[in-house]
């Protein structure tokens, strides 16, 4: 939903012809699958200590601990120096409300079917805060 929203608000304005919504959805499904397939295939080429994976949900809930873990696991210095600025920034965006997306049952079914390989690999599920349209 986020990518579709990005597409509609950003890319569509630069197009010389219109593209049906169904084609946009198919393109998004296809590109994500290509991207993640390549990532899973090639991530072992990244040297140990140069990659960290985390769930966005964990990052949202425990941002400072996750940032500390990122700095630590990637052996990046300066977390203690940056801590106050990070805390200040997080305070400045504490009232931010995430976008809500309206998805049809058909789109949810397509997500589960077409992206099943990533959903299972990362033990994800469709977020409960999504709004379903009939």
TrEMBL record:
This is Uncharacterized protein. The lineage of its organism: unclassified sequences, metagenomes, ecological metagenomes. PANTHER family: OMEGA-HYDROXY-BETA-DIHYDROMENAQUINONE-9 SULFOTRANSFERASE STF3 (PTHR36451:SF1), PAPS-DEPENDENT SULFOTRANSFERASE STF3 (PTHR36451).
């Amino acid at each position: 939903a986020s990518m579709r929203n990005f597409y509609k608000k950003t890319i569509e304005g630069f197009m010389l012809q219109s593209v049906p919504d169904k084609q946009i959805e198919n393109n998004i499904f296809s590109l994500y699958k290509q991207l993640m397939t390549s990532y899973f295939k090639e991530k072992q080429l990244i040297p140990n200590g140069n990659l960290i994976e985390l769930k966005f949900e964990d990052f949202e809930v425990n941002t400072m601990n996750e940032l500390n873990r990122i700095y630590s696991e990637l052996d990046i210095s300066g977390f203690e120096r940056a801590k106050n600025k990070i805390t200040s920034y997080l305070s400045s965006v504490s009232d931010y409300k995430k976008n809500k997306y309206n998805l049809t049952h058909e789109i949810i079914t397509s997500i589960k079917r077409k992206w099943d390989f990533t959903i299972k690999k990362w033990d994800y599920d469709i977020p409960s805060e999504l709004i379903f349209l009939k």
